[in-house]
Amino acid sequence: MKSLMNTALGLSLVVAGATAASAGELTIATVNNGHMIEMQKLTPKFEEANPGITVNWVTLDEGTLRSRVTTDITTKGGQFDIMTIGMYEAPIWGSRGWLEPLDFGADYDVEDILPAMRGGLSHEGTLYAAPFYGESSMIMYRKDLLDAAGMEMPDRPSWGHVADAAAAMTDKENDQYGICLRGKPGWGDNAAFITTMANSFGAQWFNEDWTPALDSPAWNHALNFYVDLMNNYGPPGSSANSFNEILALMNEGKCGMWIDATIAASFLTNENMAYAQAPVAITDRGANWLWAWSLAVPAGTNQKEDAMKFMEWATSKEYIELVAETNGWGKVPTGTRQSTYDNPNFQAAAGFAEAELAAIKSADPSNSTQNPSPYVGVQFAAIPEFQAIGTAVGQQFTDALAGNISVEEALANAQEIADREMKKAGYY
Predict the structure, then answer these.
(1) For 260-283, how does the pLDDT look when each residue is reduced to its tens digit (9 = 90+)?
(2) Are residues 181 and 49 in the same domain?
């Protein structure tokens, strides 16, 4: 799927070698972003209201989290009572019987959850994960720097305009870069962002017959554009940057523009931030992603009742109000409930609210590519094989950005990787 300092791990009750919790103990695997760190800090409120239940946390970066929970659920390792997963895993794992269907009371108000989030976390109408926060992607930029450069930002700019804006805001002598984008390898990291860019250039992961399409001119155009953009106007070391690293650069004033998860707006500190919809090239289909970091209970846990109780608390309207009381309405987890966007206190505090909701509502996982595709998903293809393919292909993208191989080599390698995996899985 986020001030996410390295010391954040110290704020949580990390149980690095966790095993299945004993009665009354819940072990939760989660990602090391700001909203999850805040949930951990507020967990004593839950424990006070539910004597006999204690919560232990395993807090991991995005890539490690995905690997750990996938391994645990596929091997039935039983390390975790609650897992933090997203729209890729929930429907696939739910369809295989690996997750418990959600079982919450009527006052939880499932209908208040945004339709995009309910749909993305369900299989055949059954909800298998509760969204803690949801997101799309959008442009976050320093209006003061853009104004000083004599430029404006349309609500839905072209990638060409974004490149011009990045050039205008770049001042490398003063450690100021026009644009910061993900470069760290991973199917949910650089591959997710680059896929949305490629979608807008007319690319897709697979043709209608499931043959990989990574050797297409559209992919070549998009990846060359990305590499050139980052080499010319991005910060050094971009091939190692993910969400947390770029957030830090933004808050240090080193980036003029960032295109990433809408949830980042909650953690940006500069008063001159402004927002626009994700850029397009030749189409707006699939130009901005859709995701929800969500909580789910693996099937077979002996802590189901307590796990459901915690999930219901952590994803409820009441929890959002608790965060607002503690940190202010501008810091609540967003992207999940319509009632949050309808709240005048949130509207007044969150200058990003309108742009964020528009991005979420515009994402269409069933129609995310210019040409017809056989898969559902914007920044991923919702098939079990994609996780391995996307991870390996993301490494090729990183190698191209770092200059270890050419864009053409990266895409040729990516095509070969995807072709091998799809043949092995029996798609053709």
Answers:
(1) 999 999 999 999 999 999 999 999
(2) no
Taking a C-beta distance cutoff of 8 angstroms, is the pair 70, 86 a contact?
no
Q: In what order do the strands lie in the sheet with 54-60?
A: 54-60, 25-31, 82-85, 291-296, 130-135
C-alpha angle 293-130-241 in degrees, rounded to nearest 5: 5
Instruction: Compute the distance between CA of residue 308 and CA of residue 317 in angstroms, rounded to an integer.
Output: 16
Place of tokens 């914007």: 378
Instruction: Please tell me what DSSP assigns to residue 301.
Output: -
Closest CA to 285 of 204, 386, 216, 193: 204
The gap from C-alpha 276 to its chain's centroid, in whole angstroms, comes to 18
Pairing of strands 82-85, 25-31: parallel
Q: Do 376 and 334 lie in a common domain?
A: no
Cα end-to-end span (Å), the chain: 31
33, 244 contact by CB (below 8 A): yes
CA 143 to chain centre: 24
CA distance 385 to 406: 26
Domain that holds residue 283: 137-288+365-424
The Cα 226–Cα 198 span in angstroms is: 9
142 SS3 class: strand
Domain containing 38 — which CATH number? 3.40.190.10
Q: DSSP character for 20?
A: -
Paired with 255 in beta bridges are: 177
Question: 């005048």: which residue's tokens?
Answer: 344
364: Cβ contacts below 8 Å, ≥ 6 apart: 285, 286, 378
How far is 226 from 401, CA to CA, in rounded Å? 8
201 vs 204: CA distance, rounded Å = 9
Share of residues in the chain with pLDDT > 90 (%): 93
Tell whether 252 and 142 lie within a shared domain: yes
User: Using CA atoms, how far apart are residues 370 and 165, in angstroms rounded to an integer?
Assistant: 26
Q: pLDDT (tens digit, 9 = 90+) per residue, 383-402?
A: 999 999 999 999 999 999 99
Give dist(CA 33, CA 30) in Å, integer: 9
Task: Quickly list DSSP for 174-210.
Answer: GTBBS-B---S-STTTHHHHHHHHHHHTT--SB-TTS
